[in-house]
Specification:
It comes from Mesobacillus persicus. With 261 residues, the chain is an alpha/beta fold. Helix content is 39%, strand content 14%. It has an eight-stranded parallel beta sheet with strand order 3-2-1-8-7-6-5-4.
Length: 261
């Protein structure tokens, strides 16, 4: 019986309000137990770093995610490893063989020229849904706000479904300071000129997640979420934690007010 007034959440095969989890090698048996209960609040599953390449039961894991209507894809580090070794053609064939329909194009570790990334995106989008990532894993590299805005816009105009803002699984680079502090001015400026429904903000901790929920709304797209945290995150989105308690009353952002999709 539902009797509380909660923020309106997108549901089903939604295009925003996404929870993208990071799977760093969850055993299949345990994964089945988690998905049995929580698959309805997980949209995307990233097999983190380059772990997919050495996962012995990778096909079983991919098929499992797809069975639960979750979109699996490989972390950007594997893409960059293939780029470094001039194996992009083999990588695309590998993804197709596994039945993976999404691909991440990133430059978190390597400094891949923008034009080269755009060329790869143009090639990849013939067979895949493309997600581009902006930002570096090197916490000493700092992009200006205008550079962030420009790259994100370029990737969206190039046909990427979403753009991920780098944050690492530690929350210490990209949109975060070394200390883990959120670059709030950067986030404020990004969402002024770019539709936040097209951005997936990497938010590996509850503190990071609650910032974005309060700043953008319960239907903000969040990535690098730990599997064990998906229910807590959904509670936070629904104003069922102290730090997001008054979310429904505030209801100020248009993402909060968006109808279910």
């Amino acid at each position: 019986m539902e009797f509380l007034k909660l923020p309106k959440r997108t549901t089903g095969d939604r295009s925003y309000g996404l929870t993208s989890i990071a799977d760093f090698g969850t055993p299949v048996g345990r994964l089945i137990s988690i998905l049995d209960d929580y698959s309805h609040i997980i949209d995307i599953a990233k097999m983190g770093i380059g772990s997919a390449y050495i996962t012995p039961n990778i096909q079983q894991k991919i098929d499992l995610y797809k069975e639960y209507q979750i979109k699996p894809y490989c972390g950007g580090t594997l893409f960059e490893k293939c780029y470094q070794q001039n194996k992009i053609t083999e990588y695309l064939a590998y993804l197709k063989k596994l039945g993976i329909e999404w691909i991440e194009v990133s430059n978190g570790t390597l400094d891949i020229p923008l034009e080269e990334r755009l060329t790869i995106i143009e090639r990849a989008k013939e067979d895949f849904h493309v997600i581009a990532e902006v930002g570096s894993k090197d916490c000493d590299l700092d992009m200006s706000i205008s550079e962030w805005q420009e790259e994100i816009q370029i990737f969206l105009e190039a046909g990427c479904e979403y753009v991920i803002t780098e944050g690492r699984d530690s929350g210490t680079s990209g949109i975060y300071e070394k200390s883990g502090q959120i670059k709030s001015e950067l986030i404020d400026e990004l969402i002024k000129g770019i539709d936040p429904k097209k951005i997936i903000f990497e938010a590996p901790t509850a503190k990071h997640q609650m910032f974005f929920i309060n700043q953008i709304g319960p239907n903000v797209n969040l990535g690098n979420v730990k599997l064990d945290d998906v229910l807590t995150l959904e509670a936070q989105r629904n104003g069922l934690r102290s730090e997001t308690f008054y979310l429904e009353e505030q209801n100020a952002n248009y993402i909060n007010q968006a109808p279910a999709h």
